[in-house]
Amino acid sequence: MNNIKLKLAIVLICFCGITNVFSQKSTTLRTGIWRGVLTLHEKQSEYGLIELPFNFEIKNDLDIYSFVFLNAEEQIVANEIAIKGDSVFIKMPLYDSEFRCKIFADSLNGIWFNHARKDKNRIPFSAKWNDDSRFKIRYWTNYEPNIQGNWETTFSPNSTDKEKAIGIFKQSNVTNGSILTGTFATESGDYRYLQGIQANENLFLSCFDGSHAYLFTGKVRGDSIVNGQLFAGAHGHDTWLAKRNDKFELRNPDSITFLKPGYSKIDFSFKNLEGKTISLSDEKFKNKVVIVQLMGTWCPNCIDETKFLATFYDQYKSKGLEVVGLAFERTDDFAKAVVNLNRVKNRFNANYEFLVTMKTGGAQASEALPMLNKVMAFPTSIYIDKKGVVRKIYTGFYGPATGDNYIKYVEETTRFVEKLLSE
């Protein structure tokens, strides 16, 4: 009798185990607006507790999830989502980064991994469902300074490495405080879409796009902004100040990088995504106007430029334009560089050639093109006429977040290329 009971118990245990296996289901994610927070610095750090907030929306279409990251007018859709048990894995669409999170009833907890960085590339992340706020301000006063417009900005103002920029702000009044959007344009590019709030004398702006994780704070004092702080991920910190100046301009982007004396042309040979060596002296570039784009998939301004060039190339290819991207990836693995580039290429349907230089950084870019005085920024674009002569070198990129500056860039680029094509 005892043996029969024992066998029956074993059968019941096995049956329950099998039932439990078949009944296991992935946890459901709540759809709607979420408020995410990256903890850039813990309380014990020299900066104290520093949190970067941003918003995203989770969508579910026929059991297929997507995450839409929101920064001002920009929406970045991540659709490489994997749910395993009580965990969710979110791969960002353009950059080599991802979230690994545990799912709770109305929250997420985990880590953001930025694989493009070798150090300080893991940042704690949490998110709360049904919260469309970005910055949480506890109190307001009647003091509401108007900061809309352009501001002459200085980063690292007390350093020999100080850098000039243009703060471009837009302000929308709400019940308490003001919704603030904008960016900072520098000679090497812009900080893309920033969103936040301006309450009392305080301003707060943030951006998360899968590569950038920026947090700006400052205090408005009349026509000045003081005590400015910039946190870039867990690795970067800078100070800044600004003064209202609608007439301030940066150096002409055409004047920063140039050919060394004695040179009128450039040349290079690198492998394309299929492993074939491509040179600027190849037949396909002869008697063509060529734009050489120095870029990297880790660089958000380069991604913005790639999106523009993809459409621009399709428009002017039949008229004699060629574009070639020289990729300076942050990896010494050729296969991984190809994967990163193909993701960007496919995302924007970029039909022009991309070459893997197997080099990275401005110094190595200068080594790759020794006829240039220096490569100060990514992206840098080199415009070559039908005779192979370099006619212009443009440093940086004014992206869509810069508003009128981007419109001006598109118009000037179009006029210049059409002029070269007509020669």
Quick recap:
The protein is α+β, with helices and mostly antiparallel strands and 423 residues long. The chain has helices at 2-23, 300-316, 334-348, 361-368, 404-422; strands at 32-41, 50-61, 64-71, 74-78, 80-84, 87-91, 97-103, 107-114, 122-129, 149-155, 163-173, 178-186, 189-190, 194-199, 202-208, 213-221, 224-232, 236-244, 269-272, 277-279, 289-295, 321-327, 353-356, 380-384, 390-395.
Distinctive features:
single chain, 423 residues, alpha+beta, Lipocalin, Glutaredoxin, 3 domains, nine-stranded antiparallel sheet, eight-stranded antiparallel β-barrel, 5 helices
Account of the protein in words:
The structure is a single chain. The protein is an alpha+beta fold. The protein folds into three domains: 98 residues, Lipocalin (Beta Barrel); 96 residues, Beta Barrel (Lipocalin), CATH 2.40.128.120; 154 residues, 3-Layer(aba) Sandwich (Glutaredoxin), CATH 3.40.30. Helices cover 19% and strands 41% of the residues. The protein has five helices and 25 strands. The strands form three sheets. A nine-stranded antiparallel beta sheet has the order 4-3-2-1-9-8-7-6-5, with no helix packed on it. An eight-stranded antiparallel β-barrel has the order 10-11-12-14-15-16-17-18. A seven-stranded mixed beta sheet has the order 20-19-23-22-21-24-25. The longest helix has 22 residues. The chain is globular, with a radius of gyration of 25 Å. The termini are far apart. About 5% of the residues have low confidence.
